[in-house]
């Protein structure tokens, strides 16, 4: 199903949000959150707003495979964020599309997680392929791809160092 970027409701919503945030200053800063709890073995339950999902490890890594694992969720977050940003900027730029899909893969060295070698625990590299089906010209799609890569929040998060602070509590008592 082709998206008529000049007439759909999402385009109107995007235009309104862009206008709203253009001069919002500090009011444009939004905080997102997620809570999680270890349920059993490696299985955890994450709660995001009113949504819940089970996160687990595959059986080969000691889990029960009741859900994706955290590093797979990073890849899913990248792919889905890219798709949302494509849907947004195709409308902003007036570029029609039939479909957009992303395939993301990451390579990591499991020895880092298990502490048996001095290597990073996270991804060594992440790759993604975008499939855009569109009647638009190659130049228009090149412009769309560049715009999406410039404005995709998850791509930005995983490409640059982001300050992270963590605290913990022990038996309900906050620790530093």
List keywords for this structure.
alpha+beta; three-stranded antiparallel sheet; globular
**N- to C-terminal separation?**
53 Å
Cα Rg:
20 Å
Strand residue percentage? 25-35%
Give start-end ranges of low-pLDDT stretches: none
For CATH, the homologous superfamily of the domain at 68-161 is named as K homology (KH) domain
Strand order of the largest sheet: 1-2-3
CATH fold-level topology of the domain at 68-161: GMP Synthetase, Chain A, domain 3
State the helical fraction: 25-40%
Q: How would you portray this structure in words?
A:
This protein is an alpha+beta fold. It has a domain of 94 residues: K homology (KH) domain (GMP Synthetase, Chain A, domain 3, 2-Layer Sandwich). The protein has a three-stranded antiparallel β-sheet, with no helix packed on it. Strands 4-5 form a two-stranded antiparallel ribbon. Strands 6-7 form a two-stranded antiparallel ribbon. Strand 2 and strand 3 form a beta hairpin. Helix 2 packs across helix 4. The radius of gyration is 20 Å and the shape is globular. The termini are far apart.
């Amino acid at each position: 199903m082709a998206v008529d970027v000049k007439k759909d409701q999402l385009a109107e919503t995007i235009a309104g949000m862009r206008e709203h945030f253009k001069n919002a200053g500090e009011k444009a800063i939004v905080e997102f959150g997620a809570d999680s709890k270890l349920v059993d073995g490696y299985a955890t339950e994450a709660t995001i707003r009113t949504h819940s999902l089970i996160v687990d490890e595959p059986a080969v890594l000691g889990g029960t495979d009741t859900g994706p694992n955290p590093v797979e969720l990073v890849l899913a977050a990248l792919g889905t964020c890219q798709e949302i940003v494509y849907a947004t900027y195709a409308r902003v730029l007036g570029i029609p599309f039939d479909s957009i899909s992303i395939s993301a893969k990451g390579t990591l060295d499991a020895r880092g997680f298990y502490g048996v070698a001095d290597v990073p625990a996270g991804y060594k590299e992440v790759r993604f392929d975008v499939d855009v089906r569109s009647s638009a010209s190659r130049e228009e799609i090149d412009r769309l791809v560049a715009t999406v890569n410039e404005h995709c929040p998850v791509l930005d998060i995983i490409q640059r160092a982001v300050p992270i602070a963590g605290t913990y509590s022990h038996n309900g008592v906050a620790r530093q």
